[in-house]
Amino acid sequence: MASLADGGGGEGITALGSELPAMFDGVKMAALATVLYVIMRCLNLKSPPSPPEVSHQDTPLTRYLLKCCPLLTKEYIPPLLWGKSGHIQTALYGKVGRVGTPTPRGVRKLLPMHDGATASFDLFEALVEHRTGDDITMVICPGFANHSGNVYIRTFVDHSQRQGYRCAVLNHLGALPDMELTAPRMFTYGCTWEFAAMVSYVKQAFPGTLLVAVGFSLGGNIVCKFLGEDPANQERVLCCVSVCQGYSALRAQETFLQWDQCRRLYNFVLTEKLKKLILSHRESLLGVTSSNISDGDLSRLCAATSITQIDDSIMRKFHGYSSLDEYYKQESCVRYMHKVSVPLLLMNSSDDPLVHRSLLAIPRTLSEKMPNVIFALTQHGGHLGFFEGAVLFPQPLTWMDKVIVEFADAICHWESNRLPRHAATCPDLSLGCTERAEGMPAAWPSISA
After folding, report:
1. Which of 36, 51, 135, 428 has the smallest CB count inside 10 Å?
2. Which residue among the candidates 217, 248, 313, 332 is catalytic per the annotation?
3. Annotated catalytic, 148?
4. What does pTM read for this prediction?
5. Residue 439 has pLDDT above 50, yes or no
6. Which residues are in the AB hydrolase-1 domain (predicted)?
7. In the annotation, is 352 catalytic?
8. CA distances in angstroms from 173 to 118, 182, 194, 348, 433, listed in the order given
């Protein structure tokens, strides 16, 4: 009490008050350091740029390709501030697309299918002659619920046209907002019927053309499955490029339900997108007596919170699969890729939040066993991002766009130099075409084959 009377307490309070600003400054500095640490970890700012990890057998063709495709052997440099985050790369691709997206002009083609469905694709002519002087067409299969109007497709088509490639882009069945379904089914994970119809049309319309098959994400599964279903599907195909696919739906379904890398959140977002797309075609899917979809299926659709639930209640029934496992097994390209004999470039990113890293053992093993397969794995790029840039702003063309065309160019030059110029542009052309006069295959590939 004496000390208080003497003013000792006031001195203590005064001393404490003088220390408070320093304490608050220390808390602020700690909080700032924590935020900066979290930002650096989330954005992977300390991760140095590196070249892709390329897996392949040592053959004359692979040596030639790696020599002629420097993008596969030199550093991929994403934008410094955000490009090393797979989430930001994926989100930017999904929401913004590309910088200064061009609008290539094409012609839409409609193809009647054997079951009453109407497939469609857009055809874009080359803007210049190809460097080899050959007629070459890119046959392109977009990603999940995508079509020729998606910005990453438009950017890639414009770049390919300017390098001398004609482009044919499949519009997934049900994906176009202004085109109604004419049969009670939509695109599925691995149905190749529409892609086969487009390829058949291109072969008949341009008898001298050679093909480069390109698939993005889900489209990569469809393209690889198409080539492996029947050796005849590889006639006149120079090569194939697959970007950011998961190879096995059966193995991917479990990883897509995990919270690791926020994969469950991406699953929910894609579920809502697919749900809205299916409901927009509700009348077409229910209004035909041959439909396998019931009101109960649509009720389960509305309650779905994952792609797996939609696949089980709706998607597998388009082709009459008895179970979800059967649907995933039959529609995954992993069952067919060992039958693909043309040069095959498989590209993935380690930080792709949609494709679990365990799935990448499939293309790596394939490249180690098959001389025609090259597997390129980048450290960064996200899902179909692969933006390039200096610090903040990305370039209009992505690493992905340039690599695909560079690889196709190398294959075209390899074939051009290997074959006599007086011969047909590809020796397989002498085998002739298997299309019927109207441009449809004589026998449609069975999805359960």
Report:
1. 36
2. 217
3. no
4. 0.85
5. no
6. 137-390
7. yes
8. 8, 10, 8, 25, 26
